[in-house]
Amino acid sequence: MNRYAAIRPVEKAAFSVYDMLWRIALPVLRKNRRLSVGFNNRILRSPLKGNADIWIQAASAGEAYLAWELLKSLPGPRRIDTVLTTNTLQGKEILDLAVADINRHGRHIEAQVTYFPFDMPSLMARAVHRVHPRVMVLLETEIWPGLLLALKQHACPTVIVNGRMTLKSFSRYKIWPAVWPPIGPDRILAISKEDAGRFAALFGHSGVTTMPNIKFDRVQKTDDTGNALGTFDSVVERGVDFAVLGSVRREEETDVQQILCDLNARQPDAVIGLFPRHLHRVPHWRDVLHRLDLSWELRSAITTPVKAGRVILWDVFGELNTAYQRASAAFVGGSLAPLGGQNFLEPLIAGVTPVIGPHWKNFAWIGAQIISRGLVHQADSWQDVSKCMATDMARPEEKKTVISKAAAYIRKRQGGTKTACELIMSYL
What we know:
Helices cover 42% and strands 15% of the residues. It is α/β, with parallel strands linked by helices. The protein has two domains: 9-213 and 415-426, 3-Deoxy-D-manno-octulosonic-acid transferase, N-terminal domain (Rossmann fold); 227-411, Glycogen Phosphorylase B (Rossmann fold), CATH 3.40.50.2000. Strands 3-2-1-4-5-6-7 form a seven-stranded parallel beta sheet, sandwiched between helices. A seven-stranded parallel beta sheet has the order 10-11-9-8-12-13-14, sandwiched between helices. Strand 4 (135-139), helix 6 (145-153) and strand 5 form a beta-alpha-beta unit.
């Protein structure tokens, strides 16, 4: 088979060069610490499942969770043979968990979880020939020219679901504009009109529509009646004002130091929980808290509820969501420095209106309306963050009211999983 049959001579030449560059790069890639994991899978020295119903490519952790949502929502009862690929170890771990969880709950997914082959056209031609899926599902921004070419040449239907494309990515793809229309997916479901417009400009308008973001379907209401919240009484007594500085990143630590001092001065009887995003920053924060002369203790050392006015430096995993449930004010980090933000839906569905900084582009999919409706407070500086948190602590909104407003906002934006599954099943 001539895998370049539908491509003009100039693009054929470009694909040949692209293939050659991959061949040159492979020995170097083998030495890369991240890519060396699963390297034999990436170069097809390990076998791929043949004649699969679905091949889903989920780049990393975020896309792997979307794949999990799709797989558990596909209608039964027939067995679905699936190939699940990812680029990262974390993505593979999540996909393995997804398959085990789905099968444990009564659905039968016959799935191979493996690493995504390198996009060398000759390599991808072999991969697609082997898997030959009845439908290829690409999540979000998985636009690989070698893969798309092979899918087109092997007549494998291809869909992009939960599609998104940043202006930066769009500009990069447009460097090679002529190659995309002949190898474009059969259908693209984008998460916004802006994303749909970029996909249409790249591949052509045919088959490009919008859908609700699947991420809204993954938002679950926090259960505040479980044992976790009761156990939290041994850390902070009920009735004591409690504020959370959550997912704090290294680049914003100087600002958060100011928030700590200012909030402690504004609310001297409150307990403040400080949650570094990465635990290797805990030693740094120990030095900072000593230098600031604040009263504090490590979470792991707490045996009785802390006294009012103290700071708790969290050095254990897994308690941030429970802390949000107890808090009357919360700041979500990654947002005072240009880092893209962290998930501010977590405190919101726990019943506290979160305060964030100006940088939250990673969560723009949630929609700016969430701020205009007062469900999230956006602050422009550490001073605004501290002032807003102090106000929230002085006049906290009832948690049931916050949860109800959050649920209404999220509910109106759900349904993306159903839309995507209907499209996928139309090929099966």
